[in-house]
Structures are given as structure tokens and as C-alpha cells.
Amino acid sequence: MLMPALSVTLIGILVAAGGIVVRKPPRATFVRALVGAWLGFVAGAVPGLIADVLSGSGAYVAVLGHVGAVAGAVVALPRRSVVRAPSREG
Asked: What is the 3-state secondary structure (H, E, C) of the chain?
């Protein structure tokens, strides 16, 4: 379990760094990307574990878990709120 702990945490940190570069709030971006990576890992690893049991393989849990970690971290990034200019219609 040491390797997923390091790799999923690193995925969250790298996605957060990318989010911070595009001018998102640093603290919220870091926390949300890290939590999103872990939730995504769990969401991908559970179906992967079921696929591993059914297929007799051992690779699905890791692959689907890490794909879920990337997706979860990206989805969890804070979104910029859109500020609309007042309408000129009268």
C-alpha cells in the first residue's frame, strides 16, 4: 500500500500545481486536488478490484485506481466564478 499512497498523493500535488499555475487559489486548489485524487482512486479501485477478482488478474485495481485519481483530482479543482457584465439592453 506504500506505492499507491505515494503515487496518488503525487498525482494530487501535480494536478494542484497545474491548477495553481492557471491562477486558482492555492490553498483551496491544493486541498481539493489532494482529496479529489484520493476519492477518485477509491472510486476507480473498487471496480478494478472486482474486475481483478472476476478475471484472475492483478492489474485492474492499480490502473483503474490511478486513472480515477487523475480524474478525481481534475474534477475537484475549484472553478472560477463567471462574473457577467451588466446588460446594455434597456
From this structure: CHHHHHHHHHHHHHHHHHHHHCCCCHHHHHHHHHHHHHHHHHHHHHHHHHHHHHHCCCCHHHHHHHHHHHHHHHHHCCCCCCCCCCCCCC
- Based on its alpha-carbon atoms, the radius of gyration of the chain, rounded to whole angstroms, reads 17
**Nearest 5 degrees, angle CA 12-CA 37-CA 13?**
5
pLDDT tens, residue by residue, 43-55: 999 999 999 999 9
* pTM of model > 0.90: no
Using the structure block, give the residue that is written with the C-alpha cell 446588460: 87
Residue appearing with cell numbers 492489474: 59
Q: How far is CA 11 from CA 3, 85, 88, in A?
A: 12, 37, 45
